[in-house]
Write a structure and sequence with these properties.
single chain, alpha+beta, TIM Barrel, 16-stranded mixed β-sheet, four-stranded antiparallel β-sheet, 28% helix, binds zinc ion
Length: 381
Amino acid sequence: MPKTRKKVLLSLLCLVALYIVWLSFHLISFKTYKTPEEPSTRLEIKGAYHIHSTFSDGKKSVEKIAEAAARSSLDFCILTDHGSPNYKSMDSQGWKKGILVLAGSELSVSRGHLVALDFKEPQENFSQNAELAAYRINQLNGFSIIAHPYSKTHWTWGEYAGYSGIEIINADSMVKRNYFPLLAYLPALLIEPEFPLLKIMRYPEKNLKKWDMLNKEFTVYAYYATDAHLLYRPLFSLLRIHVPLEENLSTGFEKAKNQIFHALRNGRFYNSIDAAAPADGFQFWGEAGEKRIYMGESHPFNKSISLFIKTPDSIACKTVLIHNENPVLIGTDNSVSFNPPEPGVYRVEVYLQERTPLSKNCPWILSNPIFLREKTHGKNQ
Ligand SMILES: [Zn+2]
Ligand SMILES: [Zn+2]
């Protein structure tokens, strides 16, 4: 072998060896946390929202998706196959492998993609006009969520037509936007897939700003969406929706379905990046005398109201209470309380302070707001 070829080969081998050492170092130092055996709220359940199966452009069948959800210790998962609606996907709902499988549909409408949930089966397809589709979904007792508003099919804002929610983080969009950083960790996808996925999560600045702006006038809830087409199990570990319930999840399908959708349509849930650390047990509530105010609720403002935040024990984190769009309290204790001096929209972001591949400025937990209005607003006025 000529000398120069040998040198090039040697240098390449050195580079590969260095890369393996660098990647191994990152993977070895990736600390995973176990879900607490006894979560502080035993009635809290968790699931994944925005999932595609083989009924649209997903790579796995509903049964396989339920299997992946069970392996990720989820309680429920919400299919959102493309269609207007996707009847086959919706017919697949039920208990599978111990997982409550629910389904809505992701509609392609004039302003972008709109997820429709919990609607009575329509006699005809939904309109492709965003406002008309949203109106019809509400008419059929359903609710709708604006999907990935600033990526893939960008949402073109117009009149706010009674949408119930907006996606703040969408994992599929994060992958597509941060393709190059992901490439650096590509082999890790086979060994510890949560690690590269955590590495590409970014602060969703535009989505949060828009959400805060909308909530000045309307009542809009936030979602972390997996938008899973493949890599189901890692994505189900990555982004989760936590739903605190008042009674155990029913074993009957219809009642269990109502329990989940009742919580979602009322904003009584929070989002988290659980692959960084399990968020089980997070709580954000208000007290007005004897009355407890839940996440997602509106309550007339008075100066005797207190807000309380509880983050998971023994996980170091920074809690930020936001009033309208401004932080009003930053704390590092696991228990925080606050007396709001003025009306407005109060919500919580929690940032991990532990060693984690998740960026320190990406919200590990995102609560839904408590709306302390001057006087009680109706929903989506
Ligand atoms: Zn979409
Ligand atoms: Zn989708």
